[in-house]
Amino acid sequence: MRLTASDLYTYHLPSRCELRPYLKANAVEPSPPGPFEEVLRTLGKRHERQHLESFADVVNLSSGTLEERTERTIEEVGRSAPAIYQAVLRAETVLNGVTIEILGEPDFLLRGSDGYVIRDCKIARRITEADHPEIRRQLELYGWLYENTFGKPPIRLEVFSGTGELEPIPYDGGTAALAELGIVHALTGSSEEPFSPVGWSKCQPCGYSKRCWPAAEQRHDVAVIYGVDQGLVRELRDQGVSSYDKLISTFDEKTLAALKRPWGSGTQKVGKRAGGILTMARAMERGGAILLQPPDIPEVPNYVMFDLEGMPPHLDEVDKIYLWGTQVFGDKPSEYHAALSNFGEDGDREGWESFLGKAARIFSEYGALPFARHRIRPGFF
Question: Where would I find the PD-(D/E)XK endonuclease-like domain in this sequence (predicted)?
């Protein structure tokens, strides 16, 4: 059996899921990437290509079979090539009592005074344990593969990030990466589907969302309730509560608020969120909205409906707005106006200034009037 550094990404992205590696290993096809994912892939390839072009003398190993590239990697390191692009490193280890081949393809091996630096290109801007553990595990695994191949650890591990800076990654000898690969190996070899709760932020960007989410809705899974986190789902499941129907019949606001669920390295009570969770559950049970209070909307002859479109936050930790849309509704409606960010270094500024200009023309024609942003957010009634 073979595991790769990419399997760590499958486990972690868009957020950690025990089911995703199992589905992938069992040839369950995810939905094709959406337009936003394709944009990020394009940006990532461009980021990597631009960095590649910054090296005057580089050996490109991106073509050929894995076996040929592995041999070429050893040969080029042996002759002290100054820079190696798309090397292949391979080694064997025992995970869960089974001998596994581990494979990694670091973007760059860069010669130093006594060995090589391993560098990967990522468009992410925060290469932290909290934001991108998968990037750190991937680089740690490359370090372990290098050490097992050449008998000594790399000089250092680093990421050329989306900020244009080099971010160092501590090397722990591959301990954390191999531990997670052990988890992935156990999940992929499971005899039945591993349990992994669905979740709003967890599942919507996942390629398996169209498989998992409708099934959860059909069984009235407690995890589809907005505001129910993964720890609470697991705690409720341990208590025999897996549907929102059972949640309503088992808990009232007081008892749910007192319930402790896993939180970080300890536990935390549900607390003040209990009321909103139960209200959402009742609305889902009856299949209709619950009016908490009438909306307080000022009476004016015209409103500007205003909306933004940007890169989804799960795809990049910086919310990139590329479209500002406005349209007046009321006694004197207007046409739709869009301000778009262009490509290039000044694209964001140009888009923002275009929006300000369009807004100024609306104020000039209509005078002072409210801007209303249309936002769909589950759990608000």
Answer: 57-212
**How far is 13 from 139, CA to CA, in rounded Å?**
16
Q: Which residue has the higher pLDDT, 48 or 295?
A: 48
H-helix segments, the chain: 5-12, 19-25, 35-52, 66-78, 133-150, 175-188, 200-203, 209-218, 230-238, 244-250, 253-258, 273-286, 347-366
Residue 296 CB neighbour total at 10 angstroms: 5
The DSSP 8-state label assigned to residue 222 in this structure reads G
> What is the per-residue pLDDT for 14?
85
How far apart (Å, rounded) are the C-alpha atoms in residues 339 and 358? Answer: 8
Domains of the chain: 2-188 (3.90.320.10), 227-286 (no CATH), 302-373 (no CATH)
Specify the 3-state DSSP secondary structure of 94: strand
Give pTM, 2 decimals. Answer: 0.84
Whether the per-residue pLDDT at 19 is higher than 60: the answer is yes
Distance CA 210, CA 262 (A): 28
- Give me the pLDDT at residue 377, please: 46
- ω into residue 14 within 30 of 0, thus cis? yes
